[in-house]
Hints:
Shape: globular
Helix content: 25-40%
Mean pLDDT: 85
Number of strands: 7
Number of helices: 4
Low-confidence stretches: none
Strand order of the largest sheet: 1-7-6-3
Radius of gyration: 14 Å
Largest sheet: 4 strands, antiparallel
Structural class: alpha+beta
CATH architecture: Beta Barrel
Amino acid sequence: MKIGLDDFAQKIMFIQLPKVGSVLQQNEYFVTIESMKCVEELNAPVSGSIIGVNNILRSKPGLINADPHGEGWIARVKPIDKLIEELKSLIHGDAVISWLKRENDKISVS
């Protein structure tokens, strides 16, 4: 399984990649990204072990922006046995739009 970012997280200028072999827990910090406007710590969407990272991003973090669903992937993860449960807990479909609006409102208020 590959983990990456969607178009919502654009203009990435730097990424601190996780280490191969590290273990992820869903909703816990696994990577730091820096954009033109902020530094963000991203949480893992699923639990599992990092089995590979996209080292090209060290020199070309813009790939995350240019091809977020292809060559801009961040890490390969071997999920643990509760993958189906964890995938169900992620935001899907129209709920993403509501979530994005709430997140944007948080940014606008601060």
